[in-house]
Structure formats: structure tokens, C-alpha cells
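Crash report, auto-generated. Payload:
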Amino acid sequence: MFQFDRQKICLSIGALLLVLLPLLASLAGEPYLVSLFSRILIYALAAASLDLILGYGGLVSLGHAAFFGIGAYVVGILSFHDFEESALIAWPFLIPGSDSALVAWPAAIFIAALLAVFVGALSLRTSGMHFIMITLAFAQMLYFFFVALEGYGGDDGLSLFSRNTLPALDLGDDTQFYYVCLTLLFAFLYLSARLVKSPFGMVIRGCRENEKRMQSLGFPTFRYKLLCFVIAGAAAGLAGALNANQVEYVSPGLMHWTRSGIILIMVILGGSGTLYGPVLGAAAFLLLEEVLSIYTEHWMLYFGPALILVVLFARHGLYGVLVGKEKRHG
Amino acid sequence: MLLVIEQLLNGLQLGVTLFLMSAGLTLIFGIMRVINLAHGSFYMIGAYVAATVAARSGSFLLGLLVALPAAALVGMLVEIVVLRRLYKKDHVDQVLATFGLIMFFNELTRVVWGRQPLFMDVPSWLSGSVELIPGIPYPSYRIAVIGVGLLVAVFLYLMFTRTRIGMQIRAGASNRSMAGALGINIKLLYTLVFGLGTMLAGLAGVMAGPILAVEAGMGESILILTFVVIVIGGIGSVRGAFIGALLVGMIDTLGRAFLPAFFRLFLATAHADGVAASVASMSIYILMAIILVWRPKGLLPAHT
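Recovered output after restart:
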């Protein structure tokens, strides 16, 4: 019972801190923190979506940045056509560009989900080591596709003219943008928490433990895993769309496989299969990067071995440390 | 016709380079069951060491002779210090720890050699060109690369089928504990196989040195191609790696060379080049997707 309380207390404090952050930042006279934490929230969303398939489904995807990147590109390309006042697609029916978040973000989610259907359908035919390499290879394929796509900046990427527009809100304002990110992250975490406890989530977790048994019980496990993969991809697409808005720039580098690796690190650092752990992991990673790079340009020289040590000796993640017992199967 | 033969040879050269990378990596995957993302780092180490030694001594061969044991030694050291502890862990742990190794090695090369890429000269005795087929000159260095790659392929084939150590490696791959019970020192064997793999990666790096720029992170671009080769060939199969490497090398090279002309047949030139560049850069991944649908375990899966 105590453990349960401790988890609730930690979550409440964390949520409260995030809600009050803009206020705290302005009190501390460091408004820069708001944009840093927006970045953290965006990566937290991407990491939490990866945790859905990694922590609950047991599927190690090393290509998650592909969905992140495609979401960003959807926003970038729509905004590019809106600014140029040219058509995105002229035939068979005219689709113009758009700078409205109400159009661009759902489009980003939809396109990322579509990509996830394609990648998932092919890569879920395999498992284990094959799955890792295939998701990685598909993400690289997309990376090279956008590098070669001269029409949208190719290697140099694409600058957005401005952030997307929302009725009644000004996304150009960092504080308002922060709260939009926070709302979306909370919404996703709430939905995921419902999802993993639902019968659907139980089947996914069953597949992680013993897929053959789930099949013997009559579950079409491939379809379940594919749907889970698509949900995760769609959420990463939304994170990508937010990221494009935050930095007002998209480039193929967003889907480079090292970014997939970094999202994976965030999940493991925070604790996989814990839902809230990845948020913590994203915060820890980005803050650590921020702090270490003040002291040394070569921070990766220390981060790499530290990562190896974490893997070898402290596998439960930060969330496990905070909450006490490992909530992995909780 | 001239261009076709030249591009075929270029494809073969990329193919054998990929084979050197993937032969070692597929052994590591297949035998130790460990996913090693850091294999590209040994390629980079091989290239850097060779470039440095060759620049100081003026001898490419000396660079090669120092780089090979260097890559093997660093590889064995990494196996003993890190990889050995990962064999029994989840794939996620292996991915993360080897990702940490990549970060470390990339940054280390930046600290030691700086951010500027190094350039390696083709040795003077290989700087000319040869007419393999009358009327078609082809750089001798690239022919040497192809020759070395094919020699390594023959060497590996003989080692696996004709020697005791090859037999032991195969035994260790198919049943680790049984082979151990029969008196094979599995730990030592794993370290040696790892060293062999990293030495081949180092060799690939040395040979790519004069063709590409030697820079931090150079290992990663070839690593992904190597993964594609291994997925196509089947994890753990050296033969599969050979076939996969040649397929990937050929399709990548030929796609880049001839797709623009192909698309120009029915598209405007400017548009065609863009489409061709996109399709060419994706071609090997499309090949991988097709092979996966057809044979999820690769063309020549290992027996286990």
C-alpha cells in the first residue's frame, strides 16, 4: 500500500512541477527554461510512445525517429505550400498547404500512422534481432529519401515561416506553446494508461511474455501488435509535428538513426514499461546534455561509458529508483 | 557498354567491402547472439590508424599492417570489457551498451584526431589503371580491393570448412554448452571470433580510406548497409552475407548510375533526376522489404 502511495505522490509532484514550470521559470528569471522544457515534453511524448511498443510489447524498435521525422515533415511541407501559396497536390483534387494546427497536426498523425502500418506490417513478420535491424533500416530509408528530396530542401532541410496557428491561442508565444505540449502529453499518458490496462493492453503484454501461448489462446497476435505499433507511430508523429513547431525547422537529421537511439535511451534511462518513466528519462537526458555541454564539448566521451554502466548495473531506470519497487509489470 | 562494365566493377567493389563488414558482424550476431551496433567503430578505427601510420611512414602497406592488429586488439578488449557481459542480457541492453560504445569511439576520434577529415593517398604502385578488358581502363586500387575481398571470402570458406578452429566455431554456434562440455574453451573462442570480426571491419576501413574521407562517424553509414546485407543474407550465415553484400553493392551502385537515365525516358530531366535520386537511395531497402516478404529469415539462414 505504501508503494502505491509513493507512486501517486511522485506523479502528483511531477505533474505539479510541470504545470507550474513557466511560473517558476519567470520567478527565477530564466525564461529560457520554458523552451527547454517544451523540448523535454516533446521528446517525452516520443519516448512514451516508444515505451508502448518497447516496454509493453517487448518490441525493440530502433526506427522510431522515422515517425517523429515524418510528423515534422508533414507540418513543414504543409506550411511551405501555404507560404508559397502553391498546391501540395494538384491532381486528382486540389490540396493546398496549410498553417493551421487543426489541419497540420491531425495530418501529421495520420501520415505517421500510415507509415507505421507499412513499416509494421513488414517488420512485425520478424522478431528479436531481425526486428531491430529492419526498423532501423526502414528509418534510414526514409532519411535518405528526404535527403534526396531536393524540392523540400534535401539535406539542408526546410525552415518554417512561422509556427502553426490555433484559434484563440498564439503558438508563437513560448508559454502558450508549452501548455499546448503539456496538455497533449498528459492526454497521451492518460490514454496510454487506459490502453495498457484494457483487454487490448493485456494481449500486448501477454505477447511480450509468451506470444505462442497468446496465439494458442486464439488471439491474432500479429494484428494486435500491428495496431500497437501504429498507435505508437501516430503519437511519435504528433511529437514530430510539435517539434517542427518549436524549432520552426525540419531536416532529415530528425529521422537519423542516432535520434532513434536517443529516444530509446530516454525510455530505458527512465524505465521501460512504466509509462511515466520515459518522461523522466527525456528530462534527465536533455538536462544532462544541456549541463554537460556547458563543461565540455566532448560530453559524449563521458556519456557513452556512463550509458554502458547504467545498462550493466542499473537496469530499473530512474522511475524505479523514485517509486521504489520496479513497476515494470504493474 | 563501357559504362555498364565500369559500374558493374564499382558495384563489385562496394559489394566486397560490405562483405568484409558483414562477414564479421554476421558471425558475431549468429554465434554470440549479441546485436553489436559498434561494428562500424572498428571500421573507423582501422581507417584512422592506417591513415595516420601511412601519413607518418609514407607506406600504405605499413599502415595496413598496423591497422589490422589494432582493430583486432581493440575489438578483443571491447569484447572482454563490455560485450562479454551482454551475451545473456536482453537485446535492448545490447543495443544501448553498443550505442554507448559508438558515442565513445566517435568522440574519442574527435579528441585524438580532430574534427577535420583525414585523407589517405592511394599507394603509388596502385595509383595507375589497368585494362582488364581491352579498351576499358579501371583504377588498379579498386581492382586490388576487389581482389582482397574475394581472397578473404575464399579464406573464410576454407577456414570454416577445413580447419579445426572453423569446426569449433561452427560447434559453438550450434550449441554453446555442448561444445563447452566437449572441451572447447568457449570464452576464448568468442573473444577470438570477435577479434576476427573487428579485424575484417578494420580491413574494410583501411581499404575504404583512400576512396572516402576518414572522419568520425564514417562507420555508421556503412553499418546500416551492413545490417541490410545481413538481413538479406540471413543472420549468422557467411555465405548469405557474401550473396547479400554483392546484391546490395550491385543494386546500390547500378541504381545510382542508371536510374536517372531510365527516368528521363518518361519524365522531364530536372524532375527525373530528383525522382531517380530518391528511388536509388531507397532501392536497397526496397530490395530488403521484398526479400523479407518472400523469406523472413533471409536468403540463406544459418542452420540454428
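Post-recovery validation: The two ends of chain A are 14 Å apart (CA to CA).
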